[in-house]
Amino acid sequence: MRVPSARRFGWPGVGAALFALLIAPATSVATAASSGSLSAQTPLRPEVVSLAFEGNEAFGDRQIASRIVTRETACRSNAILPLCWMGLNFALDRSYLSPGTFADDFVRVYRLYWGAGFREVQVDTTVTRHPDNKAEIVFRIVEGEPHHIVSLTLLGLEEVPSSSVTANLPISVGDRFDFELLEATRDTLLNRLKNTGYARVEVFRNLFIPAGTREAEVEFDIYAGPLARFGEISIEGNADVADAVIRRTLPFQEGTVYSESLRFEAQRNLYSQEIFTHAAIDEVAESPSEAVVPVRVTVNEGDGHRVRAGGGWDTAECFHAESRWSSLNFFGGLRRLVVRGRASNLFTRGLDSSICSGAGTGVFGELNWVVSADFTQPFIFSPRNSFAASLYAERQSLQNVFVRRAVGLNLSIARSIGRASFLTLSYRPQLARLDAAEIFFCTSFLICNPGDIDLLQSANLLSPVGLSLTRDRTNRVVSPTGGYTLLADFEHASDLTGSDFRYDRVLAEATVFFELGERIGLGETLVLAGRLRGGWLGADAFRGLEGDSPGSERRVAHPQKRFYAGGSTSVRGFSENRLGPEVISTQVENLVFPVADDAEPVCAPAEIVALTCDASNLPTGRFFARPTGGSRLVEGSVELRFPILGATLGGAAFVDFGRVHDGTANFSFSDMEFTPGVGLRYATPIGPIRVDIAYHKPESAALQVVTSQIRPFDTETDAPADRLRSGDHTLEWVRLEDLALLGPQVTLRDVSDSFWDLDRFQIHISIGQAF
């Protein structure tokens, strides 16, 4: 069936299309709400199995389709495509043809082009009916030549500083004559003038298109009105929070030059105080003068005290739980006090070989905990400034690197330097003791003497001064689809800051998010996300560690400040902290005793003493890998996020890359590790539950071996039980507290060459996006 063409002002064509549909056999009306309804499948209702557009160049198919109501039958989700190919009803979102809706869609397409400057557009439609009550629809479009703007005049800005008002407007001479861009230009002029102090501004638009031409002359007539200032500020709705405190949150006062952006900033300031469940700042209609803008601040207060508790499980921390109590108006003044307790690695001891294998073993898998009290004082000399103090005690482990027990105090002053942009000066002294870090110090800094290691692991002060800049211009707090974030952080610790460890540290990170194409539905969109992170660490001599001569070997960085990579929020092809420099350790008994009844020992005891033992013949399972971190870090990610089942279930395809090293060699792109992967995201109110699986290429690394140093058994000073034993075997040697850093390195390689070797796949389960 051919529907007559609708030309410019194509109302006859619309009528003809409607008439043809009404007289066609087996035609009835279907509303958009009936799509996908099984009860709507009647013999009189044709199903739309194809919807196409031809001749459109200015707008893509999806852009036009988003402006109309008629849809074609489609699969409910790409995840169930095989079921859709089988024609199962529950898998298909069926759509049916409605004459009234189709006629309106014809007009919608025409108006889309007409409003975008295509005043000579022609739109034709073809509806092909099949005997099985199916329909195919084609919109054929002849766009024609668009109208263009040949002049753009702004009147009424003689008394207004216009450079910032007129710069980079959405439309300019030579652009297509587009009504949406004209409205955007008008709104831009209004907003800029209101933010400059002209609260009563009005902008009128005049258009002229000479007959027989495609040339449009555009004129904006601006009435700026007088320069206005904020007038009386009235406050309503507050009960426990005093008027004076609310006034302190406002970035303006009576007499300040009016700005619309200051009003919105004041509203954000109030919302950031969690005690307010509602905040609004409105102009008061009655004003003594056009140059005065009185405002009314309206707030609703919530409960001033809150208790929160929660828990969960992930591959990095096993089971964990947290509870916190908050006072949101502590002794008035919108001061905030939060008391928090958190425990992780719960039940790791019994589950370290199954669902909690990623949380650590031995001392690293024991209970981690932190208790803290955090105090925040807003409004330090300005609403843009705030002071925060935190007192805490904790036991935390960095898997296979160290265990830290610490008490500390964090002090910081933050200043807002723009929307979601902060500059923070901090001082974070802590008294910390390290355990299980002897291999780290021996291999990273060649400090293997027990006395020196005890000094480094005992309670020492780590007291850095920090300066950081953060900027968050994303469009969402959780799972953003657009915008970017920036972080730049610098730390310095020395005698001047009261620190035993001395160092300088720089860390920078940027993330960016792009929405690809058009939104398919609520929460359904393709997002391309990227992250780049880099770090540098320069260590100095540790206070109290005496060496024979000052040198680089005495420069010691706290293991907490070294850089580590790998994990659910890093390079996901590796487990926590496993990308970067590593050493392997083994018990000395594995080297000097036979590993099997019919085997020879790997090394003679004298080779251990001389550090010449070659441990390469020891089975791989007898080694324990220990990350040592590095002083240089480069890592990043590129991730494509896509919907699977609406806004509930999404997927991701990503490539992570990174390298951690000590700066002893020049950076080479070929040394980067690249790990591709895929993942699922299940939406929850606290963020998506994320499951990622990533692949890393076959590994082959020459690693240093660390074991215990030994000496011959002395019958006068040693007890018989001190001798080395393994089963029924005994050696006349004694283990020492010193560590032996063996000279020959051991090269560990993947045993299998198969791509599907499970050891090359890493699974991460956590809450929240990777970045």
What can you tell me about this protein's structure?
By secondary structure, this protein is mainly beta. The relative contact order is 0.06. The protein has an 18-stranded antiparallel beta sheet that branches. The longest helix is centred in the first third of the chain and has 17 residues, at 99-115. The chain is 14% helix and 41% strand.
Number of helices: 13
As a percent range, the share of helical residues equals 10-25%
- Which runs of at least 5 residues are low in confidence (pLDDT < 50)? 1-42, 548-553
Helix/strand/pairing class, anyone?
mainly beta
Count every beta strand, where a strand is a DSSP E run of 2 or more residues.
34
Described by the principal axes of the CA atoms, the overall outline is globular
Gyration radius, to the nearest Å?
Answer: 35 Å
End-to-end span in angstroms?
53 Å
What is the residue-averaged pLDDT?
Answer: 86
Strand portion, in percent?
35-45%
Q: Main β-sheet, in a few words?
A: 18 strands, antiparallel
